[in-house]
Each structure stands twice: as C-alpha cells, then as structure tokens.
Amino acid sequence: MVSVWFGEGLNSRSRAGVVCVLFVAALFVLRSLKVGLLAIMLVCLLGGSAMWRSHSEWEAVHEVRTGPYTGDAKLISDPQPVGRAARVVLEIEGQRFECWTYGSSKWRMMARVAGEGVTVQGERRLVTSANKRRLFVRHIVGRFEVTAVSEIATGAHIVESRFELAANRVRAALGEGARTLPNDQSTLFAGLVYGDDSQQPPAMVERFRGSGLAHLTAVSGQNVAFVLAVVAPMLTRLRRWSRLTMTLLVLIWFATMTRLEPSVIRAVTMAGISASVLAIGGRFKAWQVLATTCVALLLIDPFLLWSVGWWLSVGGSSGLILLSSRIRSTLECRGLKNHPWVLNWVVPSLAAQLGVLPFIVLVFGWPSAMSIPCNLLAVPIAGVVMLIGIPVALCAGFAPNAVAEIVMWPLGIGVKWIDTVAALGHHLNPPVWLDVFVALVPIVLLLRHRCGNLEA
C-alpha cells in the first residue's frame, strides 16, 4: 500500500528520496527479523511492481485526448438520474469521461445500461473542478459535453461482451420480477440483491446512512456466498476442475452483474482464490486469502487504494477474520456460552462493525449508536432476502402478475422490515457522546478480556 501511494509522485525528487529511505529501512528490518533472502526479494519485487503500476495509472489519467468527437461510445456505468440530469460514465476511444445529459438526450441515455453502446456527438474537455482527483481515482480522465445521443445503427448491444450481455439480461429479469413491489421497495430490493442503488431516492439513502445500514445496499461477501449457495447443488455434481471452472465463471458473471464495485471485486477474488486453492488440494487461512487478495488487486488496479468502499470492505472482512473468535470467547465468558443462537446472531455483526469503525470515523465521523441494534435487527432478514432473492425474482419475472405478486410477497415483507428498521434508526438520533460510548465499549471489553479471571 505504501508503494502504491508513493507511486503517484515517482518523478518527484523528494518523494523518490523518501521511497529510497523507506526501502533501505525495510531491508534492515527484514534482515533483523531473520527473514530469508527469497522473502526479501519477493517483497522488493511486489513493492517495485506496485509503484510502477501506480505511476503508470496516474500518467494515464493525465494523458487526455480532448476536442470534438462524433462516434460510438460505451456506457461504463448505469445512467443515474440527478435532478433534471442523468449522469453516466462513457468510454470513448479507450478513455473514460463523465457525461451529464439533459432533455431528450437524458431520456435516450436512460434507456441504456452499462455495457451497451450509443452514438454520441459532443466535445471532450479536461476536468477543471475541485473534485478532479476523485474522478481520476475512478479512471475518469475528463468530461464529455454531449450535444446529441442516438442508437448505434447496427444494434445497441454491439459493444457488449457475453458476460455483460448475460448480466444485463439477468438484471432486467430481476427488475421485471420485482415489478409487483411498491416503488421504494423495488429499488431497495435491487440494492440488497445485486447492489443497484442508482434509483434509490435521497431520503432512503439518508436514512440507511444515518442508521448504519448503508452497507446492505453494497454487494459484499455475503451476497457472493449466497449466490454460490444457490448454485452449489449443480456445482457439487461436477468433477473437480469442471467445478472450479464453473465456480470462477459464476463469480465473474456475478461481479459483472453488480458493476464491478470495489466490495464485490474483493469478495469475488477471495472466493476465487479459496476455490482455486481447494481444487489443487492446498489450504489457506482466511487472513492469508485476504492478504493475497489485497496485494493482487492493488497490483491490477492501484486506484483501489483511494476507494472508501474498498477500505470498508477490507475492514469488515478483517474484523470478521481477526475479531470473531475473540468476541465469541468474550461473550461466552459473560454468560452466553449456552446460547449459541445468540452468539451466531451477535458475533458476526459486532466483528464487522468493529472492523470498519476506524475507516468510518476517519471518513464520516462517529457512527450512530443505533447502528449496532439496527444491524442486529436488519442483517438476518437481509440475509434471507439476499439468499432467495435472485431465484424467486427470476421466477416472478417470467410469471403473470397475479403469480408474481404471490411469489414476491414474502420478499416484500422482508424488504419493508429492513426499511422500517433503517427509518427508526435514523429517526432516533442519539447525542454524539452516546455514539462514542457505544462504539468504545466493545473495544474496552475485548482489551480487558480475561476469561480465566472471570471464571475464577
């Protein structure tokens, strides 16, 4: 991570000097720890590769082709309505541009989804706003001022890959299956099941953030696990290498369907590494899988280092891996040893909340004291919706309205429950001192945990 950060200013003499000092210091530390020469060479290789990849990506976002353009463009993101406009990211001649469309151009763009192509006319400009760094770390190099939008003459799907085409068809079928739910429930269902929060109203976004439940509308490892659980009966019938191949294809398809968000990239990569290691007969500990995932993904896309979603995802996974056993033993020593269902209910949520706490405090401030009870009430129901949401909604998508209403009715109740918990958590806004107190109490209990003393 340090190498990726320093790679941004690799041409700067001051930063290059700091890199050399840190590099030499790291060598001395590794030698003092009696680390083998092969390990030192591997660390040096990974560090140098990370700096080079970071430097290359920063150079790429500053090499922008500007001026008038008329031709085909590919949608990288789904069009998102923002007031009277629609915001979308377009790929033009291999570079990404942020585009805001209005009027008739807006409605033509809103009819498309990520992966599809359109013919556009307009002008490519440099980013001059104060938030240009935020755009750069998303690989967006400039803005495109569009004057006309039309369909590609040979078909709107001409630029879609097979994975994108399959993913878009499944998303469309899921949306059709959720048609019987009220509007707010259908948009929340899309966020829970496949991470599409582009159509959620601002009031819903605000109450989910205020109650600490915003992570439910971002696809994570839980969603990936549920998808693999749905296809497990088919995968278990296959031979080892066929099973691995199909598992990887399912993971790639799901990542494409959820628009390659940082959280799902992390989750899918961890699942892919675990499946590959299992197929070859090896064994990795969970923290080793997470560390390998972080290194591999930062080498592929160094800009993940500046993604808040990435840090929250890694933090939540770290909490589950490193803190779950300690939290469980702490609660067992405090009288819950004979209540395993309570432990299974509380431990994962509390471990994930503690894992993301440092990043939430740094970026958003202290989380609401209501986030823990809201997660305990909403996460189990959200898990059920995520588990059965895809197969049920797909069946409802091809059924008549009367049948679809019956099939989707239980899911509608679950979605309504989650939204109600978020609304109550947002409405019951406790004072800041209580937020700090509730966040620090679990940490103090873990640090003072002495099971032997308690039993004595």
TrEMBL record:
Intracellular or extracellular location(s): Cell membrane
Transmembrane segments: 16-46, 213-235, 264-284, 304-323, 343-366, 378-399
Domain ComEC/Rec2-related protein: 192-427
Signal peptide feature range: none
UniProt keyword annotation of Ubl conjugation present: no
CC annotations in GO: plasma membrane
Protein name in UniProt: Unannotated protein
Broad class of where this protein is predominantly found: membrane
Lipid bilayer topology: Multi-pass membrane protein
Source organism of this protein record: freshwater metagenome
Keywords, comma-separated and alphabetical: Cell membrane, Membrane, Transmembrane, Transmembrane helix
Pfam family, one: Competence
